[in-house]
Design goal:
Layout lengths: L2 H13 L3 H4 L5 E10 H12 L2 E3 L10 E10 H9 L4 E6 L2 E6 L4 E10 L10 E4 L4 E4 L5 E7 L4 E5 L6 E4 L6 E2 L2 E3 L26 E4 L1 H6 L9 H5 L5 E3 L7 E3 L7 E5 L2 E2 L4 E2 L4 E2 L6 E7 L13 E7 L8 E7 L2 E11 L3 E10 L1 H13 L6 E18 L2 E24 L6 E25 L4 E24 L5 E26 L2 E23 L9 E3 L4 E15 L4 E14 L2 E15 L5 E11 L1 E4 L10 E4 L7 E13 L5 E18 L17 E17 L4 E15 L9 E2 L6 E10 L4 E10 L3 E2 L2 E6 L16 E5 L5 E2 L3 E13 L4 E9 L9 E7 L4 E7 L5 E9 L1
């Protein structure tokens, strides 16, 4: 070797650290880390001691944080301290340390999480293993399954409002472990640590809101009644109809595009008393979930939202009950064991007494006569039985029935004294309006093994609507009488059979799949008219008495999978077919959701949803009565379709005090329908109803912001929505897009609940919405005067209005403040509660409807409005035992 070569080799050896050639497992290492990722530890060892690490980023996760302080420890020991807690194995190959994951045997723990007092299953409870940073949540039936490494020693269970509980696991084997949680007795809810509850940013699901029953009961009440649907309308993206009218629109959709489920059974009309109350008695509700978008593949059949309400199971251990009376209704609920720890029941009922409160006032205003009558009420009743056959088998049987009725009867005796035509006669008339729901559910839960759970369901539901009209006129002095009778009815029935599976192969991986079949029986309208007068003007008439049957078939699968610590995927497919009138419609609906964790605890979420709806609702825009008719798709009217894309960010603070979400969405809708200009519910209920509708498309888009305070003495939420919604029909508005009737540009909702102590609680809710679209006449003209058919001496000019573009005007802004105070006193054997609520506290005159009014003196016409819900105080009293 030349002298030059020797000098170059010497210089290279001086520049290269000797440790690279000299390190071994006994090399003394000094290392100081404070809450640093494992990757930083590897970088320090490489820089200081020349130790190179080799690993696959897809297999080995070096983001785990560690705090470690060592001085002059052997390298082998230091690597064990760094990697052993995370099951990372280290080995030397050449001059590199190769990192791999240890292959440890797995085992599965499963069971139910329940309330320790009464055995009630807890939906959405968290089961977590801190040592392995793995967790899961219970499904809709309170069942959980988690697969862990066999050296796991304990699990934690937690649920909002309950004390977290640690459960020590047996050393080996797969086990079923029932976890019973005790409600916290402290004023403030327990602060759940990061290791025991998933943050909002860690959940893949977006556009979903869970409403605890405690919040439903705490928000201000209308006429003393708490209501889940009114609570949902205080959330961003959800709007209701005018004060005193029904209908709920979600992200610019129509009310029929909301799938409302009670124990998995569809409810076709969820409203009492023209939308003031819903059919859901809060005393029997256990859980309520609202999906506004990013629908999981297991749901289908509607375009805009899913409202999934679950009833209580019933106390398995003791008897409990509640009796309550409010300004408008009285109700009760009782639950307890039929066979302790085996069979439970829960029963509830509610009945209004509107007629008792308003009878005299209505008679005076409407002049019903001495023998006239006013009768109005609603009732609903729920029942459920829950039986445990074995740790693997449970049976549930539940039912609901409810009805609204309004009867107005007039009865007058008249006598004329003008000679020579002195006459006596009697005039009677009665009008009856009614509607109601009936549902029944039979459900069987079966646990095949620790990882596979199934639910078999059979349910039935029906909705009916009816009107009766009877008019009778009879003269006592001459042979003259007239009698008219009319009846209109409408009905839809559903029978469903389905089986759902829930498979949990490993932590961070949940698979759901199932199949269902639904038979729809449509009886959209039967009209009967009869004239029994002395000289009948029309023959007896009965028509539209027919049924249409449609069969809906569904197959779905969805996979919720944590691909990496930062990336979570929910992918699914919902395949459906609808058979009606020898026509078969097919639909394949992909569902996709992604969640990616960003720095500083933020999450980026996005979702794409394709939805399909084979049934339609014919809506009469000219009335606030529930005269809407459910009809199937036909060869002329295809199923409605929608595509929705959603993107947003979400975050929960480290102390779980606050949650924040921001979402933007864009939704298109095809095959939406609307009555032609002169059609109505009564004229188009026959077999050819599809000749009296027009078919078009719609779209909606907007942004929603929700800030929630979840814990502490003061809780509540602030929501804001900026949204657009429009429709387009070739036959309407010259084919141009126009604002949909539920289009409201700005919506703001603020709800605050403050608990002073265990006795006193106050709440307030303020809502603001910009005006809704309205079509108004822009001009009117009068023609040549013609004789009046009623009085030839008084000719009247015909008048016609020229309407402007569809929905180009806006009503005035709508806003309202509601207040509530609750006093609760707990006794040894029972608890009493007083609630005082103030609806529309500053008496804002929000419109119920608008009409054009003429001023004959000024010869002007102007827009006037009617308000039916002014400031309304209410009080309720309840006793729980």
């Amino acid at each position: 070797m030349s002298l030059t070569a020797k000098l170059l080799l010497g210089m290279l050896l001086c520049c290269f650290p000797l440790q690279v050639l000299a390190w071994d497992w006994h090399t003394k290492v000094t290392l100081s880390l404070k809450d640093q990722p494992l990757l930083v530890a590897c970088q320090l060892l490489e820089k200081k001691y020349g130790i190179h690490f080799s690993y696959s980023r897809d297999v080995v996760d070096l983001s785990h944080r560690i705090t470690l302080e060592v001085r002059n420890k052997p390298l082998k020991k230091v690597l064990e301290l760094l990697f052993e807690p995370y099951d990372i194995a280290s080995s030397r190959i050449g001059n590199q340390v190769v990192l791999t994951m240890k292959n440890k045997p797995l085992r599965t723990i499963s069971g139910y999480v329940e309330d320790a007092r009464n055995g009630e299953k807890l939906i959405g409870a968290t089961v977590y293993c801190p040592a392995q940073r793995a967790g899961t949540v219970t499904n809709q039936y309170g069942f959980y399954s988690i697969t862990l490494k066999k050296d796991t020693s304990s699990l934690y269970a937690s649920y909002i409002g309950y004390t977290p509980q640690r459960y020590k696991l047996p050393a080996t084997g797969n086990r079923q472990i029932a976890m019973a949680l005790q409600p916290t007795n402290s004023l403030q809810e327990i602060v759940v640590t990061e290791n025991m509850k998933a943050h909002l940013q860690e959940q893949t699901q977006m556009s979903k809101v869970n409403i605890p029953v405690t919040e439903i009961e705490a928000v201000p009440r209308l006429l003393g009644e708490a209501d889940v649907m009114r609570t949902l309308q205080s959330l961003p993206g959800v709007t209701g109809g005018a004060d005193g009218s029904g209908g709920m629109s979600v992200r610019g959709g129509s009310p029929d595009q909301n799938l409302i489920l009670l124990d998995g059974t569809p409810v076709f009309n969820s409203e009492h008393v023209f939308g003031i109350f819903s059919v859901f008695n809060p005393d029997i509700i256990k859980n309520a979930d609202l999906y506004k978008g990013a629908f999981p593949a297991r749901y289908g059949g509607r375009l805009s939202s899913i409202i999934d309400v679950s009833m209580k199971d019933g106390d398995m251990k003791n008897y409990h009950g509640e009796v309550s009376i409010s300004t408008i209704a009285a109700k009760f609920m009782i639950e307890g064991p039929l066979w302790k720890n085996k069979t439970s029941f829960v029963l509830s009922g509610r009945r209004s007494y509107i007629d008792l409160l308003m009878d005299d006032a209505v008679k005076n205003v409407m002049d019903l006569g001495d023998k006239g009558d006013f009768f109005a009420f609603f009732y609903d009743a729920n029942a459920r039985i829950n039986h445990i056959f074995s740790p693997k088998d449970r049976l549930y049987l539940s039912a609901y029935g409810g009805e609204d009725a309004l009867v107005i009867a007039q009865d007058h005796d008249y006598e004329t004294t003008d000679a020579p035509d002195q006459r006596r006669y009697q005039e009677k008339s009665s009008f009856k309006l009614g509607w109601g729901n009936l549902t029944g559910t039979l459900r069987w839960n079966h646990v095949f093994n620790q990882r596979l759970f199934s639910n078999v369901t059979f349910n039935y539901s029906q909705y009916f609507f009816l009107t009766h009209y009877h008019y009778n006129f009879r003269s006592y002095t001459i042979d003259e009488h007239s009698e008219l009778y009319g009846r209109y009815t409408s009905r839809i029935q559903n029978a469903v059979g389905k089986i759902d599976f829930d498979y949990r192969p490993r932590p961070g991986h949940a698979i759901k799949f199932g199949v269902a079949s639904t038979t729809h029986i449509f009886k959209p309208g039967t009209f009967f008219f009869e004239d029994n007068s002395a000289t009948p003007s029309l023959p007896d008439t009965s028509y539209n008495n027919f049924n249409t049957v449609g069969v809906d078939m569904v197959l779905y699968g969805e996979d919720d999978w944590q691909l990496t610590p930062d990336l979570h995927l929910n992918a699914g497919l919902h395949a459906a077919g609808f058979l009606v009138e020898k026509r078969f419609y097919r639909s394949v609906q992909p569902r996709l959701g992604l969640r990616y964790l960003l720095p500083k605890g933020w999450a980026l979420k996005t979702a794409y949803t394709h939805m399909y709806q084979p049934i339609h609702l014919l809506t009469n825009n000219g009335t606030n009565l529930p005269t809407d008719l459910w009809v199937p798709s036909t060869p002329k009217v295809k199923p409605m379709l929608s595509k929705q894309f959603t993107i947003g960010v979400a975050k929960t603070t480290e102390d779980h005090q606050y949650e924040f979400s921001l979402e933007g969405y864009y939704k298109t809708m095809n095959n939406v329908i609307e009555y032609t200009e002169y059609a109505s519910a009564f004229s188009s209920a026959g077999k050819k109803w599809d000749d009296q509708v027009i078919i078009g498309k719609g779209r909606s888009y907007g942004t929603e912001v929700l800030l929630e305070k979840k814990q502490g003495r003061t809780k509540g939420w602030l929501g804001y929505t900026l949204a657009w919604s429009d429709r387009q029909f070739a036959e309407v508005n010259e084919g141009k897009r126009y604002p949909y009737k539920y289009d409201a540009r700005h919506n703001l909702e603020l709800t605050v609940i403050h608990q002073f102590n265990k006795t006193w609680e106050i709440s307030a809710g303020w809502q603001f919405s910009t005006g809704k679209p309205l079509t108004l006449p822009v001009a009117s003209y009068e023609g040549i005067q013609e004789p009046s058919p009623y009085d030839p001496q008084q000719p009247v000019p015909p008048r016609a209005d020229e309407l402007g573009e569809r929905n180009q005007f806006r009503t005035s802004n709508i806003h309202r403040l509601d207040l509530s105070v609750t006093y609760t006193k707990k006794k040894r054997l029972w608890t009493k509660s007083w609630n005082l609520s103030l609806y529309n506290a500053y008496n804002q005159k929000n419109p119920f409807y608008y009409y054009v009014k003429s001023d004959p003196v000024a010869k002007e016409r102007y827009l006037a409005q009617k308000t039916i819900l002014p400031i309304l105080p209410s009080i309720s009293y309840s006793v729980k035992f």
